Amino acid sequence: MLALLDLFIVGWLPASEVLLRGIENLVPKVGLSKNLADDVGGIIILGGAISGGEIAVDRAEVSIHASAERITKAFELIRKYPTLPYIFSGYSGRITPRGISEADAFKQLVQEQGLNEEKALYENRSRNTYENVLYMKPMIEELGVKNASGQLKPWLLITSASHMYRSTKIFQKQGLLVLPLPVDYQTANSLQWTSFNLVDGAQNWHDVIHELVGLFAYWITGKI
Question: Domain of 184?
Answer without folding.
Answer: 2-220
